[in-house]
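Shift notes (night). Ran Fibronectin type III domain-containing protein while the centrifuge was going.
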Amino acid sequence: MGTRLFVALGIGGLVLAVLPPEPAHSTGARLTAVAATSWQTDASVLGLAVARGKVYVGGRFSTVRPPGAAPGTREVTRTYLAAFDERTGALDAAMNHDLNGFVWAVVASPDGSRVYVGGDFTRVDGLVRNRLAAFDTATGRLVAGIAPRVSYRVKALAIGRTSLYFGGSFGLVNGVTRNRAAAISTVTGALLPWNPDADDDVYAIDVAHDNSRVYLGGTFATLRGRSHWAVASVDTSTGAALPFPAASAVPLPTSTCTSRVKDIQASGRRVFFADAGDGRGCFDGTWAADVASGKLLWKSNCLGATEALAVVDGWLFKGSHAHSCPRTFADGSGTHFLLLQNPATGALGPWFPNTNGGPPTLVGPLVATSGGSDLWVGGDFTEVNGAGQQGLTRFTNFGPDAPPLRPAVPTLSRPAIGQVRATVRASLDNDDVRLTYRLLRGTSNTVVASTRVSSAFWYRPNVTLTDTTAPTRTTQAYRIEVSDGHHDVRGGYATVTVR
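Came back to this:
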């Protein structure tokens, strides 16, 4: 994995263009498309966070089971919250709590000493915890001082310095009006003055890395009575709206289209947004803004609701059910649930593993996180790369990468005396896009021609190689070998009588 394909991007959307393998913006991504072993859940995963070598997982599930175990077998009880070893994927036996409602969001403190969870629950291990709780990562125990009384669902969490920001569907916190967004002190647990006052649900929340602002996303139309459709940038202390011209990326609702922001990922000088739309052709894509100026950097108009974002090893990961990027999926290649994007341009990257979409949403991936050089994905899926794997999966930068697809038997022709031309459809490699093709002659597999061609799951051109030294008036056998630099995969033979 090292050569890359990029797709030309304009602000209006993606346009198919196969470019030379080296991009103008280089990144460090080395994730293999082969999923690493991971435990599974019996229902959706909705929240993920990494802290001190562990991955904390929340959702709708009531049991977890080992890799490869079929549904209903070898199950271990974990009611809506579990933890796993980040390196091995093994279940953390010590993190075992009884929650009485779903977990919708999980976030780790910057130093990894705590994880905060939000959701529908009102009890944890029999103790009152109204929809928000904190756990000590060293002991796994509840943190006593973090117990705000939130009146309804908490769906999103983010931390900025000593403030825990949260959003959802609630209207009161500690009996004080806080419409769908609020903040508490991570030191004392006290309710803070921060109050954006949203008129509808907040689905996503994140804090700029310089703590200059908080980003909100959801289905709201106003903050503090002023129009802010689905997204806003607000002050970290008061919640007052700040100028944010990039908000124009989200179209205003119409009778045929309602697009809302489902996830937000701040990373350095950029902040990334994921949209999902109701209505044919409604905006479902991703977009990026500059933190300092608030200006729109790029917008990708792929269709298929985008639910999850994570920045990993210099790439922007998106979990969606992408089924159409203008001109890009023009071959009818179907739905793709896992994709990488160049964070500088939005162009699709060289990584194409996949999941399916399972019940209840049928979207597939719903949440993602990274410990720096790995990627954990949770959601409704029941398969990863065609194999059974429910609710949770992970990808790493170690272990085997994906081999190219076995090439087909070539179609042979005789363009001239002493020449044989072989044509074959380009192969596919889920973590390499620039592959080497060799034309092999005879049982000795003599290399008589080679070339390098870019391909992706939506773009597989024909590859043509010509043997210009074929022995005349003989019958020869030819086959194609394709290589990604780690794997050499050979197809079957075809024969021809040379002129």
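Residues 411-497 form a domain with the Immunoglobulin-like fold (CATH 2.60.40.10). The first strand starts at residue 9 and ends at 10.
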